[in-house]
């Protein structure tokens, strides 16, 4: 898999939060995914990488408990991907 972290800039157009976290588990419509993410996902698929971890989608942004759980895993996630 690939892990992707990014600078949001001034707006957050595609994030996971409490109100949409269950919907996110079912999938995100392609047209709702930002072009930058689409490009990255297409590249991953061309490289035959089927799984990716995008922090703003994986971590529930307005849930401090989820943030703490996922933040604790981030060093391992990024360390593993940087070794590949």
From TrEMBL:
Domain of life, per the record? Answer: Eukaryota
What protein name does the entry list?
A: Heterokaryon incompatibility
Q: Which organism is it from?
A: Macroventuria anomochaeta
